[in-house]
Amino acid sequence: MSKQRFFIATSGNDDEAYREAMQYACKLADNDPEIKRVVLLVHTKQNRGWFERIFGREIEKQLFKGTTFKNCRPVFKFETKKTYNDSYTPSEIVITCGLDSDEVLPIDDFYSVKAIIAIPWLADGLDKWVHTWNPTEIRGNQQAVAAYPEPTCIVKKAMQDLTDSINMSTGISHPSDEEQAKTYILALHKYEAELDADIVGAYLVRELNWDTDHAKDIEKLINTLNNGKYFQGGRRTGLQNYYKQWKSECED
Prior knowledge:
Protein name: Universal stress protein family protein
Number of helices: 10
Order of helices and strands: EHEHHEEEHEHEHHHHH
């Protein structure tokens, strides 16, 4: 399933951004009969002031139960970070309301989400998500950030090798998978000129279909070494052999 991604380059109490996002969701639903619901995803039940100012208190209350609007087919409903779960039926548009990248990226993994329209609270709050997925800015404004670059061929080969070796449903939570991941990160950190956690994480999510939380585990290992610290586990010997193998594959 191809997920559509959009955002509005704004910050703070931009009420019009929420109105625009809802109108845009209606247009998306017009072109996709599978879309049944538009989720207005907020931090908590208290974080909904934009909608009371736009629609008034009565309609805002109706949004907790779910309501429709004239000339717009899907149901609009409030959900919070605690209440919203993946229904595993691709039928929803999510408008993220004042959430940042760390909160939007896991929602991007949901199978039920056919499209995301993200509205930040801070101007740079969505940078990592935008870097990862290069979504469309629906106001037509120039994007503040570009997509992350591709990692080097050697890093790609290492991450592809890791992906083929581990249980993708659990990431590196199994001890043997964690040991292999740590070994690979140690080898790359020792022999690559630079290893950027965000670039690697984005590649895992965008190209190798890792869940966001599992990719974060790899990012944490990279950041630990980049910050001059150490982690337990991973083989410390024979690292050059791994690196030579990946390099050879890149040269073929």
